[in-house]
Amino acid sequence: MSRTRHGEPRQRRRPPQHVASRLLAGSVLTVFVVFFVLPVVWLLLAATKTDQQLVHDNPLSFGSWHALTANWHALTAFQDDAILVWLRNSAVYAAISLVITLCLAIPAGYALAMTEFRGRRALLIATLVVMLMPNATLVVPLFLEINAVHLIGTMWSIILPYSFYPFGVYLTYIYFTTAVPKDLLAAARMDGCSEFGVFRHVALPLATPVIALVGFFSFVANWTNYFLPYVMLPESDQMPVQVGVGSLLSNVPSFNPTVGALAIQRPQLALATLVAITPVLVVFLFAQRFLVSGMLAGATKE
Amino acid sequence: MTLTPSSAGSVRGRPRGTSRQSRAGVAFVAGYVLLLVAFGVLPTCYAIYFAFTNAGGAFTGFSNFVTTAQDFRFVDSLGHVALYLVFWLLSLVVFVVVLALLLHKLSSGPVSQALRFLYYVPGALAGAASVLVWLFMLDPTVSPVSSLLETLGFHTFGEVIAPGNLALLFTIIAFWTGAGGWIVVMYGALNNIPKDVMEAARIDGANGWQTAWRVQIPMLRKWIVYMVILAFAGGAQLFVEPQLLSLASTGVAGRDYSLNQLTYDFAFQMNNINGAAAVSVELLVVSVSVAGVFVARSGFFDAD
Amino acid sequence: MSVYKPSAAQETGTSRRRAALLAGCAATVLFTVTACGSGGGTTGTTTKDGFAQAAQNDGALTVWVDATRMDAAKQYQALHPGVKMDIVSYDGDANGSNYLQTKVQLFNRTGKGWPDVVFSSQNNEASWAVDAGFAAPLNKGLIPDATLGGFAKGANDVCTVDGTMYCLRNDLSQAVLWYNAPLLKKFGYTVPTTWEEYQALGEKVAKEHPGYLVGDAGDSFTPEIYLWASKCGANHITGPKSVSVNTTSEACTKMAKLLDVLIKDKSMSISGVFSTDFAKNEADKVLLMPGPAWYGGAVFKDGLKTPAKQIAVAPIPQWQGDTSPSTGNVGGGTWLLSKHSTHIKAATDFLKWVTTDNAYQGEKAPGFPAYAPAAENWLKAQAASGYFAGDLTALKDASSQVWSDWGSGQFSQEAIWAATVKPGLTQGKTIESLLPGWQDSIAKYAKADGYKVSQ
Lengths: 302, 304, 455
Known about the structure:
CATH superfamily of the largest domain in chain A: MetI-like
Number of domains of chain A: 2
Main location (chain B): membrane
Strand content of chain A: under 5%
Pfam family, one (chain B): BPD_transp_1
Radius of gyration of chain B: 24 Å
Keywords (chain B): Cell membrane, Membrane, Transmembrane, Transmembrane helix, Transport
CATH class of the largest domain in chain A: Mainly Alpha
Shape of chain B: flat
Largest sheet of chain A: none
Distance between the termini of chain B: 19 Å
Number of strands of chain A: 0
Domain ABC transmembrane type-1 (chain B): 78-294
Membrane topology (chain B): Multi-pass membrane protein
Oligomer: heterotrimer
């Protein structure tokens, strides 16, 4: 793969304007970095403080390693390592549904974009419509359906609804319609490839970035989903980490004044939050490597 | 291999190819269709059925729609959502596209990559996880940006979350969590634009802004349309942001702010799933209409 | 390939598809609905203890508790190893999460899944749980009258609908007057016994020791401390679905005026005791603080970190000339027993133990027990802990003095106050001027929840 962009001579005819526009661009990017990152930095530091320090110290000061470990111990003490159970649950739910999502959404998005079949438009419309439907009223029908097939109380009661990921189907659809020329597939068909062969040997290799994108967004959506598991799962040891963080929140005195001696302090909640989002960030860093590389492949293979 | 997008590949062997493709297409979507029906179409139809019936299952016409519209919170929340939508859509479309273009122009690998990561980080902080963050960010007593808040004339948390500021606050919170993901998507889409197209623009003497305006943004059309459709629906269904501010402020700001909060109230506090369904259907109709306009005008469904 | 618009034939095909899709899903909905209708499973019920009981079996007793009450359930399990228990932790319906109600609605549709016994940190669960057919009547045979008689006077009012008791109170949150004993002594003041004295003292503190506080009016439960104690008829639940609201009577306005004066003098804070503002700037400025029983632990000891041997408790002031002492109440949890339980015996045993037994309520419970004999024991344990200055008899006295004409409806009074009065207060308006708007808002919310409102 040739990444020619770096070596290219850039416009050098109007240097002053060029410098000014670069400066402007740089400062816009920087302002937004501060906007996006500052609260996260605060959260990182919050986890290293005691509740007293959180209120009295400089918001962007570091507490102490001692406080950090104390917070960790307090956090894991909450219902005997409950947070580890929540993390494991989240990982299982998000991973299994991720696999199912990829297996179903990528071929579907591909077919919607690259093949003509009866009902294609209806499918596109139906997908869009259900994606736009507010969730509040879907919970009851979902619960009844899951109950009808006797899956209440099992992990499938949330994995299966998670696996339905219309957003990913559309991402794939748009990717193929905008980035992969149909002639490429036609050529492969001429060479005697079956339809599946075309998908497997031509489309899939070109689709790496969108697979990474769909996979990542599906993982995040499942990892951060709160309401479905909250309503669907009957046992506390089945809860994913989002619901767990929610229940920690309801044990913080400032949000729920009447909690007793078992109160969770705000720095512990901050730490729980950080633990809860770490997997998402790791997956992002992993997925990001595929986002760029594959996208260029299509255009440079000629 | 020739790859000019407009080459006439459709002349060859149309009938046989189409039927083979048609069968394959159906096979490719079959698994997804199963889930779509089970977890999308069926629940949605069920909700629509709820909207037109009462608790006993008897058909009631539009009475659920009328009753819910007469709720004393309905008109207010409608206004709130409309105002929020203006802020939200404008900020999202403008900033996401601009930031993606800038990141793409920056193009020096590691910096751009690091920035995209940093922009994305808040995206992981969904729901309950960010209550604490916003409680502290918006409280001048303990906020890292307290000097900024003081400059704007806010001295207490109560002043920051005054009713008049809410639409803007929710936009900031939603943008903070939601924009990063879209920036990644747009950035990826920009990478899809073939080199030769960009090169042609450059040879024609177009500068950076002209290239962006005449070449890149038109080629992002489908992605932007998709984003607007979803952002509109998401904004119309505003729920998480007011809910979390309501938690952070122990109910002072953000309760009963949006229509979607009202649906949750109907469904789970007032035991009126039928009323909730009616409001949901209204939101759905509005979102679908907006989507319809954009889809029709952008050729979104054309497999070109 | 599809540069051209799809042909008319294709279009018709699509719309036929769509019609088929619609028909298909309509059929499925009908199927599902009928399937659910028959899923009630009401066979084999016997009417006993005032309700139709399901056929009993000896499966595991399912108990839902919040994190704080987890200890109670675990302790019961340890003391009764023979009882099969499934202990589930949930948010206790805190912050108006409506979790219990949401789940019960779903279980009612599927006809199974209800927990046997539930703890809720809210005391208004009976207002919906009776309609939903979830809460079992407790005073029709399940819990002996002797036990029910042991609860503090009025403690179970929030559980009573039309004379039938549908839940048991876990803890009381009667309001008292907390004060910093050494500080009060140092300033040379005495504890006020009337609201008139209280106001005078507040004005004096503002002049002599500016910065010090005689109270806080910035929390969502502020009306439950001050206006309830002042017998303001803002929330008089007169029947299962009827409420009388009058926030502009003298009982309300005189308390509002008192608060307004002290707020203006700045000896009454409007930050809220759990705000960061309060913790940062006012934590060591508390001289007096009217507040519920749980302030002792949650606010002073854990929140503001006030050192031991400073905080003492006195009765909440009364208006001059009032003959019967009255106070307010802020929260307090309840326990419910499911009508659908198939282990009613085990459920009842647990319910009785958890609300009355000294082993938990008398020794371990964090809140003031609603069951009076356990409360005696609890007070001894608190006194022995050595945190408070002086004795805690004021708490015990207040437990039976909660004014009974402030009810516990389905709508949240705290949420209404927070949303309608608090923003105005922040903008510098007086509470008195906000009272009519408050009444209006209560009436609207009550009506939305199906209450008949008289004003």
